[in-house]
Design brief:
This protein is of the alpha+beta class. It has a single domain, classed as Aminopeptidase, CATH 3.40.630.30. Helices cover 29% and strands 28% of the residues. It contains 6 helices and 8 strands. It has an 8-stranded mixed β-sheet with strand order 1-2-3-4-5-6-8-7, sandwiched between helices. α1 crosses α2.
């Protein structure tokens, strides 16, 4: 009898869920989101920046009260695990979450990313991604790390490739967001690819990759073979 092909053997042990860790880097840190602690600082950084909410299911917010109510709900959310991003000056400059968490399959997604203007295009914006990715692969033992975004969100799609994610396709009419259709672009990094991605992140983040004026000498896109 001819045997049918099957996948390679995999350790079936589930991965743990994310927890309230503090992930420290050279440019800042990630810590468990706390609405009371982080709310006012995040509001100051995000206030009036309506464009950062374009592709998110919530926002923009007209006032601090509505923003604070949303952030309290985010903190209580048991489906997504949110982290605040803190820079070296102790400013709350953004949030990120680990979501679509499937411990039995060891699959997890980074998403619901809010980068305020003071964080965008800074080394911390990249370092935060590295810290959370390292946590998922090395500390929690996930084998697939996903990135999904609206197919019309060109900056997010460029970022995924820059960070080393592999494009997997478009899920058509995947969601309805703010009463509009969303086709979703899917990307991933798997555990076998992580060592090379980690090396690229660390080479890019190394102090000697930056000139005295703060400009990068070699781009992360080039290191990961992504379009500039």
């Amino acid at each position: 009898m001819t045997l049918r092909p099957v996948g390679e053997p995999v350790d079936p042990k589930p991965a743990p869920r994310p927890g309230p860790v503090t992930l420290k880097g050279r440019h800042g840190r990630l810590e468990r989101l706390n609405a009371a602690k982080h709310g006012s600082g995040l509001w100051e950084a995000a206030r009036g920046q309506d464009h950062i909410w374009t592709y998110l299911p919530d926002g923009p917010f007209a006032d601090f009260e509505s923003f604070a109510k949303w952030l309290e709900a985010v903190e209580r959310n048991e489906v997504r695990y949110h982290y605040a991003v803190i820079d070296r000056n102790e400013r709350v400059v953004g949030t990120m979450s680990l979501m679509e968490i499937r411990p039995a399959m060891r699959v997890i997604e980074v998403g619901y990313i809010v980068y305020t203007p003071v964080m965008q295009r800074t080394p911390l914006a990249t370092e935060a991604q590295y810290l959370l990715m390292r946590y998922a692969f090395e500390d929690l033992g996930y084998r697939r790390y996903e990135w999904k975004c609206d197919s019309l969100n060109a900056p997010s799609r460029r970022a995924a490739l820059r960070f080393g994610f592999v494009f997997e396709g478009i899920f058509r009419q995947h969601m309805i967001t703010k009463a509009r259709n969303r086709d979703t672009a899917w990307y991933s990094i798997i555990d076998k690819e992580w060592p090379a991605r980690k090396a690229s992140f660390e080479r890019w983040l190394a102090p000697d990759n930056f000139a005295p004026d703060g400009s990068q000498k070699q781009s992360l896109s080039a290191m990961n073979g992504a379009p500039e």
